[in-house]
Design brief:
Helices cover about 65% and strands about 0% of the residues. By secondary structure, the protein is mainly α. The chain folds into two domains: about 60 residues, no CATH class; about 80 residues. The chain has nine helices and no strands.
Length: about 150
């Protein structure tokens, strides 16, 4: 439950401060702590949520490590799908994030998922279902296997 709560709320401050890209973050001085405090101020268990978000940011507990790994995998997954759709910039992001982020993942299961993702096609899981009986479609070529 802790990990799921961390995963759900970890970006909540950005709803108030903005989701800045990696360039903009070099120039921003937003106060995410205050944004969280303000967000949770009217909730009876608001202090518990603030403490949970601090735990997430510290990345010391297994729950926090799992939640952060899930966040990183989600980002890499978005880049991976966009790359397969032909976005050249996303390909650069994916390759860079794979090189820089994957070694920093804290759990072996997250690393295993990242490597499995890299070696697969994001469309194969559903596309093959629709083309398996259609002989006019070259499935192997379509999935990039030729």
């Amino acid at each position: 439950m802790k990990t799921v709560t961390m995963a759900v709320f970890h970006d909540l401050a950005e709803a108030r401060t903005g989701d800045l890209d990696f360039v903009a973050k070099h120039y921003d001085t937003s106060d995410e702590e205050k944004a969280l405090e303000d967000s949770f101020s009217g909730i009876d268990f608001g202090k518990d949520l603030i403490n949970l978000m601090k735990e997430y940011e510290d990345r010391e507990t297994l729950e926090a490590k799992c939640a952060k790994d899930a966040d990183s995998l989600e980002q890499i997954h978005q880049e991976w799908v966009l790359m397969w759709q032909g976005n050249k910039m996303a390909q650069k992001w994916f390759e860079s994030d794979f090189k820089d982020r994957v070694p920093g993942l804290k759990t072996e299961s997250a690393k295993k998922l990242a490597y499995a993702m890299k070696e697969s096609n994001p469309q194969e899981w559903w596309w093959s279902q629709f083309v398996k009986d259609d002989m006019a479609i070259d499935r192997e070529k379509l999935l990039g296997k030729k």
